[in-house]
Design a protein that fits this description.
The protein is mainly α. The protein is about 65% helix and about 5% strand. Helix 1 packs antiparallel against helix 3, helix 2 crosses helix 9 and helix 4 runs antiparallel to helix 6. The model has no long low-confidence stretch (mean pLDDT about 90).
Length: about 300
Amino acid sequence: DLHSFPTRRSSDLDLNSQIISFLRFPLTFLVVAIHSRGEIGQVPDLMHLTTRNLYDMVKVLGSDVIAQVAVPSFFFISGYLFFANVSKLDWATYKNKLGKRVHSLLIPFILWNLICIPLTLMVRYGESLSGTSAADAAQTYWDGIRWLHIFWNATSHDSLFANLFGMNFLMAHPILGSFWYVRDLIVVTLFTPAIFWFFKYTGKVGAVFVLLLLLLNIWPYMTPRISCLYYVLGAYWSMSGHNLYIEHAAIRRCNYLLTLVLGIYLVCVFSYESYWGWQLIHLFTVSGVATTFCLA
């Protein structure tokens, strides 16, 4: 019954808080690892692996497999925390929650997107002086800034692959590209009342529907990304009174096995660099997020 929030024991609240606190640093480290992979070669022939293939597979394991649970975990935790310790979602509660996120999300998002412009200009200018970039690199960067789009979609491109139904995704970034996560987090937080009412009337059926959208990569061609659905699932999990970890031992062990098998497969096909890796990445991340919370 989601008409009101179920209460949790204080021991459960403390344990969930400990899990989140413990995961903050390793998940942040994994986000850095995502952007540290570097170039890799073609998907290898597993029967004729070379030293370069093995080196690339280690990079894929770290950046394109294990690290892929980081951003979905942060989305899930954010959705989970929004509805934690809340008896009902009225206007006062919603306004109070948004007020806190103005300082933790909106202001840093605006400031860092603005700060990155002069910093990038300095880097481009320095590169041009050293000869590692074109002489007009800084001017080219400045001329290419779409000022009305710097917080939303300063750059964009289509996804590498379509989903099973032939639908492509829009991969849009603010001027500070990695802050697409913060942008999407701000957007989905604004829609928490809609999330609340959706699950109030649909309950588990609604959660299964959202999960299927995620696993099948079904998402509109728009700027906020499908990763927002992890926030929605985290919100449902919190509203339902569940702890972050899987409490049933048998389900937990099965999920560990699923994460391991999918992880091995994704390494072999270079994760989302291949068609089937792209299709299965969200199944892995859903399983991997659950595994991460359980291991913590």
